[in-house]
Amino acid sequence: MSKTDMTKADAADVTDTAQQSETGLDEAGAQLSTAPREETAVGGPALGVIGWIRWFWRQLTSMRVALILLFLLSLGAVPGSLIPQTSANEMKVQAFKDAHTTLAPLYEKLQLFDVYSSVWFSAIYILLFVSLIGCIVPRTWQFTGQLRGRPPGAPKRLTRLPAYATWRTEADPEDVREAALGVLKGRRFRAHTAGDAVAAEKGYLREAGNLLFHVALIVILVAFAVGVLFKSEGGKLIVEGDGFSNTLTQYDDFKSGSQFSAEELAPFSFKLDSFTGTYEKGGPQRGTARTFEAAVSYSENGGPDKKAVIRVNEPLKVAGSKVYLIAHGYAPVVTVRDGRGKVVTSGPVPLLPIDNNVTSTGAIKVMDGYRDKNGKKEQLGFQAFFVPTFAGAGKGTMLSQFPALDYPVMALTGYHGDLRVDSGLPQNVYQLDTSKMKQFAVAGGTGKANRLLPGETMTLPDGAGSITFEKEIKEWASFQISQQPGNGLALLGSVAAIAGLAGSLFIQRRRVWVRAVRGEDGVTVVEMAGLGRSESAKLPEELAELAAALHDAAPTAPEPEPDAVPEGSDPDPESESEFESEVEVAEASAEEPAEEAEESEGAEK
């Protein structure tokens, strides 16, 4: 007689410790994962100093604590995004302190103005680093040992495993085991013969992906530390025709990591040849930039000049640094003369935009070379207000109607006296300090600023000179030059983390055993069973495919004649059928029928 079936035992039957010890499942399921197991001794002796140290180390290196620390690290970065940081902008920090006199002292004690270099953030960061390393090293060592070892032998009761199949065949047990070995190896199982059974295992990449994911987290943490400690970032506003050399004194503003040295600045320079900006002329997107690019000539380490075009999100990569285009504006060319007609200063004056239509403001400062009508040295200052497209006098407030240079107009308000640039205090180059200055009276004595078109001149009263708005209007571009040594490492870690996570989620580690023994009636009994790290519907399906493949080499034995049934056996008429390619799959009940249990024990004998 032949019998073919497959059962999926209840999870409680597999995990129950007593049953595992009885049937050998504890060895069969051992080392399916390298995750550390917590062992607690209930009612054992009190822990000593060494015991408490070991307990603390096990807790610190557990994945649960690593996830908690990772969450705390993310939570600790929130204040760094919401509160101004000293390393990023000291002026904003000071403005925040002036505006919040009650909160500022508390924030200073909590180091919220320096989150990423604070004691508490560094402690979380270091603990997470130690936790990941302490978790990965032993698991990697254990996984390496598993790769060098062999799958464990078959348990005593294969019927207890989640997926099971059996049938009888006339093939010799040795031939069945040889065929099973070939089928399993052909499907990329690691297989070997252990006693009367073939043991096979597959899915090692699941644990490899898990370890790769955690190693990638360490790489990302290292990249973050390298980026914070060795980064450099600065800004520079350049007018068309001017250039920049990557030295510390050339930057308008500069910030760097604590371990960065000015000697590490990459040796390169570039010149802004021209800036091109075009805008949508009509429709709901009127004024939206269509072309926004800077043509530059750059040289690396004193080499020949090269041409490049920098666009938004398309930086210039040179000497390990990136040059980003971040802003744009206009720089009207002005000429200032004294009362004798002598040119005191002439050149473009960058003005800062205050809206999307590039309405701009700024200051024109004449600090040296100017003398009044009596020959006395004095300083001049002009508050400038510029619009690239003026709506026209009497048509509302003087604001730009379009970002392009369609109808440029500049309004100037003149001052004379002391600009306070020699006081030793830092001063914004785009603002005037008029505390020690007097305003020039304009024509008609109205006190209002003079509006000038390109080519027009504003004459200062009492022979004080003049200022001319030249017809040439240059454009400027603002660049950010950054050197981030940890970016490549962070990208590598991110890609590795995604690959490792995908492997740990979509690959199942499982084991298969094939036992072939000769029964009392001389017919070989074949048993197949599978065990996975976690329950999955794919395991019975895969076992069914393996059983069908093995059945081709060891087909079901023909049913014996009724009179040939051994004495004492109890044939089951419902089971007298040939083996089919599709193996029946059923959920195993918590308690096996007595007849089936007896038949399984007889097959094992």
Explain what you see.
This protein has 605 residues and is an alpha+beta fold. The protein is built from 13 helices and 24 strands. The chain has helices at residues 11-15, 17-23, 25-28, 49-60, 63-82, 90-99, 103-109, 119-148, 173-186, 204-230, 487-506, 538-553, 594-604; strands at residues 6-8, 163-169, 190-194, 197-202, 232-239, 243-245, 253-256, 268-279, 289-300, 306-311, 316-318, 321-337, 343-348, 352-353, 360-366, 379-387, 409-417, 437-439, 450-452, 457-460, 465-483, 510-518, 524-532, 585-587. Strands 5, 7, 11, 12, 13, 20 and 21 form a seven-stranded antiparallel sheet that branches. Strands 14, 15, 16, 17, 18 and 19 form a six-stranded antiparallel sheet that branches. Strands 2-23-22-4-3 form a five-stranded antiparallel sheet, with helices on one face. It is elongated. The relative contact order is 0.16. Mean pLDDT is 82; it is low at 1-23, 39-44 and 568-605.
